[in-house]
Amino acid sequence: MPQAALCEWRLLGPSVPAFLDSGGRVYLIAPPKQPHVGGLIQLGLAPDQVVWIHASAPVDRLWITEQLVKSDPAGAVLAWLPQARPEQIRRLQIHAQSCDAPVFLLRPVTALNDASPAPLRVAVSLAPGWQLEVRIPKRRGGALDEALYLEAMPASLEAVIPPRLKVLQALPAGRSHKEASDARALGRVAPHPFTGQPIPH
Q1: Which of 19, 44, 74, 183 has its CB 3.0 to 4.6 Å from that of 24, i.e. a possible disulfide?
Q2: Please, which residues have CB within 8 angstroms of residue 168's CB and are 6 or more apart in sequence?
Q3: CA 26 – CA 77 distance, rounded (Å)
Q4: How far apart are CA 55 and CA 53, in angstroms?
Q5: What does each C-alpha distance from 35 to 28, 67, 86, 100 come to in angstroms?
Q6: Structural domains for the chain
Q7: Per-residue pLDDT of the chain (201 residues; tens, 9 = 90+)
Q8: What is the reported pTM?
Q9: How far from 8 is each of 134, 136, 142, 200, CA to CA, in Å?
């Protein structure tokens, strides 16, 4: 994912606060970029609701994700696992069955070529006009054949951005797939405060 964190927050960000109504936290495991406090506040997240866990090695990312899912935390788990193999995802899926928190694995779009036990797979890319193009190649009941187009302009920008900038051109075809994200949702159908510094592992 050459331009990491391009689509993830625009897709998942608006829904994350709803997962924290009972006092939980959102756990970010190895995000490609440092969480931006101002942006999180605009999403409705207080800094002390965000736990940023820094881990560089793939084996550490997997271990941390597995331990966190097994602990059944209150809130939501977002883990960036670009190198996870299908059998490793299957192991996480088994643990996620007993976890009430939603678990999202963020991976490059090229991972769609690999098999996955995740019950839901979503491919996200940029579309014209500040939209997201969302494809669902796997879900319960069969794949969704048509793409969904979601309005994804941040509310803070919508009130101030000039109209001419609200209509963006689509990315060139050669770049669209490179800059897309593959988000996998694990689990059933259904703590340190963030201070601007990572929690090292």
Answers
A1: 74
A2: 128, 129, 130
A3: 6
A4: 7
A5: 9, 22, 28, 24
A6: 8-200 (3.40.50.300)
A7: 335 567 888 899 888 889 888 789 999 999 998 888 888 888 888 899 999 999 999 999 999 999 999 999 999 999 999 999 999 999 999 999 999 999 999 999 888 888 888 889 999 988 887 889 999 999 988 889 899 999 887 767 777 777 777 665 444 444 444 445 677 777 654 444 343 444 444
A8: 0.78
A9: 11, 15, 23, 23
* d(C-alpha 1, C-alpha 182), whole Å: 10
pLDDT in tens, 3-49: 556 788 889 988 888 988 878 999 999 999 888 888 888 888 889 99
One-letter amino acid at 60 equals D
The amino acid sitting at 8 is: E
Residue 12: is it exposed, middle or buried by C-beta count within 10 angstroms (0-12/13-18/19+)? Answer: buried
Q: Which two tokens stand for residue 98?
A: 């007993």
Bridge partners, residue 133, by sequence: 125, 149
Task: Spell out the long-range contacts of 5-10 with Cβ–Cβ below 8 A and sequence spacing 24 or more.
Answer: 5/31, 5/32, 5/33, 6/126, 6/179, 6/181, 7/124, 7/125, 7/126, 7/132, 7/179, 7/180, 7/181, 8/78, 8/106, 8/124, 8/181, 8/183, 9/39, 9/43, 10/132, 10/152, 10/154
194, amino acid identity: F
- Is the Cβ–Cβ distance between 132 and 126 less than 8 Å? yes
